[in-house]
Every structure is written in structure tokens, then in C-alpha cells.
Amino acid sequence: MTLGMHTGALAQKVRLATSLGDIVLQLDREKAPKTVDNFLGYVKNGHYKGTVFHRVIPTFMIQGGGMDKDMVEKKTAAPIALENKGGLRNARGTVAMARTNEPNSATAQFFINVQDNVFLDPANARDGNGYAVFGKVIDGMDVVDKIRAVPTTTTGGHQDVPVDPVIIKSATLEK
User: Fold this and answer.
1) pTM for the complete prediction?
2) Which of 28, 38, 34 lies closest to 108, judged by CA?
3) Engineered SS bond to 53: which of 40, 64, 150, 165, CB 3.0-4.6 Å?
């Protein structure tokens, strides 16, 4: 088996069907295996259905996967260890795990970088840890750009919340 075939076998795609269109992510199991497995666990158990992109900053990223349209956080599995040594960069169109100030706190929430955010890469991060990139958008960047352009407000103590919820209707595995 050639390396190319092996890498292809490891490539996994997930389609996020949103209220503004579909986004297809290609996950990088080779460079972020635990993070990909964590994300796929949430995809397979239907966790993302009905969640929203609850934090939208047009010059930074769009974040989703943890709150419903009423800004109620969904229950999650235990946090995972930060997987930041794979060399993947927080470049426009990449997807990374959201976390708190604690590096090993990622659960279900993820974000899509809408521009190159090199300050989130481990080598440049203020905390020395950065954020774990685990894939990239391979189709639907136009949808990401639509989401980044929606009007936002502050609601219930949360900033940068879309005025009209951008709903993830489903997250499904692609062949």
C-alpha cells in the first residue's frame, strides 16, 4: 500500500447541513486522530443536530456545535486532551476544536477559521498551547462566508450571537 492510498483511507468527510447551506469538512485523522475520533463520536450520535453557530466574529471565526437556538448548552462527553503537535495551522477554512482557557477542555464545540489566525497555532499562542486543527472545509466556503456576514448581538451574556440563529440541521458522514 502506498502512503497516498493510506492517507486517502484515513480521510473522512462530514457534511454540515445548515440553515444557510451545506459545508463539507475533510478531517485529518493522520495528524489529529483523537480529535477526529472525538468529533466523529458527536457526529454519529446526532449531537450536532439542532445546534447553532452561536459565536460569529467576521474577522476571526464562526463557532458552533454546543448550543441550541435558545443558547442552552447541550450535554457533552468528557473533555479530550489537546492534540496540537500535528503541524496543522489555523488557516482560513480550517476547522479546530474550541476550548476554555484550560488546554485539555475541548468537548463538542468547534470553529471554522474565516481568515488565517496564526496567533492560534501552538508556536505563536500566548499560552503556548494553541488550538487543535483537525480538518478543513473542502466545499461550502461560500456558506462559511455567508455565516460570517450575519448580523450579531449580545444575548444572555453571550457576545457575537447571530440575530437570526444559523442552525446545524444535521451532521452526517460522507463517503
Assistant:
1) 0.93
2) 38
3) 64
